[in-house]
# Entry
Amino acid sequence: MNSDNSRRDFLKKSALTTAGVGLGALAFPASSYSKILGANDRVNVGIVGFSSRAKSALIPAMLKHSKEMNFEFTAVSDLWSRRREEAVAYVKDKSGLTIATARNNDELYDRKDVDAVIVSTADFQHALHCKEAVEAGRDAYVEKPFAETMADARAAKEAVLRTGKIVQVGSQRRSGANYHAANQFIKDGKFGDIVAVEMTWNVNQPGRWRLPELTKQIRKEDTDWDRFQMNRPKTEWDPRKYLEFRLFWPYSSGIPGQWMAHQIDTVHWFTDIPHPRSVAANGGIYLWKDGRQNFDTMTAVFDYGPLDDKSKGFQVIYSSRFTNGAGGTKEIYYSNGGELNLDTNRITPNGGLSERNAQSMGMKANLLPDMALGEVVKTETGADTGVDDLTSAHMRNWMDCIRSRKKPNADVMAGYNHSIANIMTTAALRTGQFVTFDEEKQEVLAGGKVFQY
# Structure
């Protein structure tokens, strides 16, 4: 199975159009951006990292809305000369525009024709590239995971809040109408208290995040290995770590940052709880022994609840494997009255408290209604864009927010909070310790000690 297609199929299945669903800040009228920037004021966008994610989703998503919103690509920054050339050819083919190239972000931000940037670089670079962008006076769309260490997360959050720039993190579920409907149903008290959440992301893909042909072709002299490593420990040139970074710590946490960050973000959103109270996790490289350092299988158990009241809360169980695709991807919230299933987009009484079991304890039955989260509507996209509905809606929201200066659906705090959960899970997996979070120091503690690498 093609990994990009399987991921896109899932996102399409769970997405709803943002048009006409009455979700307030989810969709702004086209006229709203004229209140801040004139509709005739073009927003020039730079591409920071011409990655597969940028090519397959982010650039097509912006181009889909660029005419209406008056946005235009003007430049690309990438450390690898080949990627710069590919970006120029790709944008030319899709839009007819010829964009400029920059060998690094210093050169990009020296340009006067870049107002905002799309950051789609290696996982560990996102937060630092976000910090660079806003301090250079640019708004930014920053792919998730937002950060892989707390030092990077804190630095990026401080820079965004200080500069007041518009930053949206690529947690595209926050622009899905079904997710907004779920959030509202829970916040309205109709669901009842969450008692448990189950999340999975299973595939059978030995080639996931592998690029064997490219690793044979890339040459150190055609890129900037020292600049690529940023604040990570300096090591000798390794084409696999450059191109297959998702398999190697500390360049990526792998599954927690790539997949779990998407799903765990909804827990924070639906509950307004910023992070887990604790995490225990286990994993290993059980099958795909190809030199990777990040696990091919993992399970994490989270304790969530009010940070100041341990008598209330619920458990989240997250599991993922690369070695067998059974079970696929699921996100199910449970209350005493039933379940809210974000795979089927239905609320049902499944598992709720039946009359028989309630009566035996002198209680009343508690069963949720059987209902859809909302009408599933396919968002029309051009046949050649390849962009999924959620990413399209999420990009549109960012573009709207640049115009209106409104808060994005997934702002910097959403990214900061999912990063805490991500880093706590990574710490539990890499140390085998019980992990908590120090509120005062804003540090992840593994076995009582600060976790970094």
Remarks:
- The chain has 14 helices and 17 strands.
- The chain has a mean pLDDT of 91.
